[in-house]
Write a structure and sequence with these properties.
Number of domains: 1
Strand content: 5-15%
Order of helices and strands: HHHEEH
Helix content: 40-55%
Oligomer: single chain
Strand order of the largest sheet: 1-2
Length: 112
């Protein structure tokens, strides 16, 4: 696909990256250039986000301050959601190539 500013903005929304903290515009351009459709680009982005989550170490799951309790998602949960999003967008691809097969029959005659 040919990247445009509108496609980059839409891809940011699909990747939940409105604050531009995860991907640069150049990275989103690469996703769009390599993809068949915007949903394929989003799928690729979510796969990369899951890899970033996997590399995050030492995040707290739950902590308390006084009587208040704060919970954050575990890395495993974040990775799982990212992969689910990648699969969801891959399924939404508008340029899916149907996998199938065909048979080719050839009949020849040789006269010598």
């Amino acid at each position: 696909m040919t990247p445009t500013s509108n496609l980059i903005e839409k891809l940011r929304l699909l990747l939940n990256d409105k604050d531009k903290k995860t991907f640069t515009d150049e990275e989103l351009n690469l996703f769009l250039e390599e993809a068949d459709c915007i949903y394929c680009a989003a799928s690729q982005g979510w796969v990369l986000k899951s890899l970033q989550y996997e590399n995050t170490v030492g995040e707290m799951y739950e902590y308390k301050v006084g009587q208040e309790t704060y919970k954050s998602s575990s890395i495993k949960d974040l990775v799982s959601v990212a992969y689910q999003n990648a699969d969801k967008f891959k399924d939404m691809c508008t340029n899916k190539k149907e996998k199938g097969s065909f048979m080719l029959g050839i009949s020849t005659e040789f006269e010598i």
